[in-house]
Amino acid sequence: MGTVWVLGIDTSCDDTGVGLVRDGQVVVNLVASQVRLHEAYGGVVPELASREHLKAIRPLAERALALAGITPKDLSLVAATRGPGLIGALLVGYTFAKGLAWALGKPFYAIHHLEGHIAAAWPEGLDPPFLALVASGGHTHLYEVLDLGRYRLLGATRDDAAGEAFDKVARLLGLGFPGGPEVERLAAEAEEVVPFPVPLKDQEGYDFSFSGLKTKALHLVEKGLPKAALAKGFQEAAIAHLAEVVLKAAEDTGHKVLLVAGGVAANRALQARFKEAGLKVYFPPKGLSQDNGAMIALAAWRRYMRGFPPSPLSLGATAYWPLEEA
Amino acid sequence: MGRMWTLTLDTATPYLSLGLFRGEEGVGRVVRLGRRHEEALFGLLEEVLAEVGAKRSEIGALVLGEGPGSYTGLRIALAAGLGVALAQGARVYGVRSLLAACWPFLEEGGPPLTPLFTARNRLYYGATYLKRGGKPVEVLPPRKLKAEELPQRGLLLDPPPDPRALYELLPYAREGLEPLYL
Description:
The complex is a heterodimer of chains A (326) and B (182).
Chain A: E1 5-10, E2 15-22, E3 25-33, H1 35-39, H2 46-68, E4 77-83, H3 87-104, E5 108-112, H4 113-121, E6 130-135, E7 140-147, E8 150-156, H5 162-172, H6 179-188, H7 211-223, H8 227-253, E9 257-261, H9 268-276, E10 280-282, H10 294-305
Parallel strand pairs in A: 1-4, 4-5, 6-9, 9-10
Antiparallel strand pairs in A: 1-2, 2-3, 6-7, 7-8
Chain B: E1 5-10, E2 15-22, E3 25-32, H1 37-52, E4 59-65, H2 71-88, E5 91-95, H3 97-102, E6 114-118, E7 123-132, E8 135-146, E9 155-157, H4 163-168, E10 174-175
């Protein structure tokens, strides 16, 4: 088999992502961020996101191809996020990718956004089963990965996503967006810590909850407690919570390997905590933890190599799509 | 370029309009779908391609309907068209969907026509056009209208954007896309 080039696109939320993967290796990964556009509104405005995706998608794809030194005809497959996400935003990248695949006469792969995140952290040569924590601004899900395309949901957040909680607390503290790196930076400056209770201490399952931490942070900010100590306390509790749930699941299922994917995976304190716990932990390489197109190309490449059939072009995008059904 | 085909697409209305044209040759299709144009688009395109006997690699230009209409709906044709264009290095042109819908009914020297697309909240998208010297003339630009603001003559209610009209309007179209978010 010759060289396999995969172009992957993600427009599930507010970032336009185009990535190119050659034989399973990321060659180009471009993300056009809309953070500044939405910052003024205090959150993502779906219609604005869709409009920006439409403006950005063709120039971004052209630049990605130019950087890799290839032409569209060199592509072996085209892949895009089918869901879950904002439907109007998804449709732009997904339909663009279908148009490209159709015109080239090449296979098209409709990819689940979270399978993309998992693929980004999944090193070559690692065989399932293992655990996968996907924690980002929109997701906090713990899965048992039985095989590529076979997932069992163990637990998920009952309220805010982990990254969302970091964003909201960052805003309370007058920090920028995205909140994760900002909170982490401020916490590192702290000389003392304001303790926060760890959520869902004695639960039976493997769920997450972050809204209590956020509310606590709000009360403490109103009391005028030092911000760095507060950031540190919040971060410690949020990470202790993620770690407790995951370690309990590892013990109960007997899995020794964990993938941590999504934007929250970039948090260094979290990385350290899992490594201490004696699990074999894999994180995505730098630049692949946030939403991006390369992770979608990686997932499609895995599916293609394993002989999964391409997706029909009549398959529509979908805002709601459990990973277990991908 | 004489051997190249032009692909036309419009998804701004409940209709899916598409076609492949080359001079006098070509086939256009209009299907009323309501929603989910993106699921039907490529199947229909495949049929049209086979019917005219063209190859995908022979698509040299695209003319896409820019609306007005459903925001999410109109972006389907634009996103799909941009993807096709990237594959072939094809040029992309935008035409107002309202103009493409009334072009077949405009007569040289005849009265102005006002095509209307039903919008939400009891409003209409409308524009008024004439044909002079074989060219389209925009008398009133696309805008939102209430029922009581509609002209008394020359109304066309919910005409489908015409695939061949998109092709015929190419000489008067701008290169690039300017979606109409009214």
